[in-house]
């Protein structure tokens, strides 16, 4: 059971209520930065090569799955993304506005990401162990390339990927509290 949770069960959009910036809430916690899949803690990157199975389909990476979910009404585009040779190619295809994006994407994207992360860290025991070993550290996708999923490079971003990983870490621990860093 979780106590003192700062994550409303009905919404993934809590930062406006509880958080200001990464700089404000990381001052007193251990921070683990991650970004590139080949660097330290690169396993937390969506580009890290760890296949996942969701609803009977195998996806090469969480990035492949996430990008494909933007187009649930277009199986051809989903298949093209699923079969993309690299996660970078999958990301480029998913970010292309040549294809019509699902109308509710902004409302569902955090949940889609959390589903992908749950699959990744429950289907690969070594990744689950790595995530749990981070204990109460603040996990930060440190990149100036993304101020929604990452920290914007200077701590001004939302760091949603890091926040979702910390939420998942809490779920995977028995009788734990989810502590916001």
UniProtKB/TrEMBL annotation:
Gene3D superfamilies: YbiA-like. It comes from the Eukaryota. InterPro entries: NADAR, YbiA-like_sf. Residues 34-172 form the NADAR domain. This is NADAR domain-containing protein. It comes from Boothiomyces macroporosus.
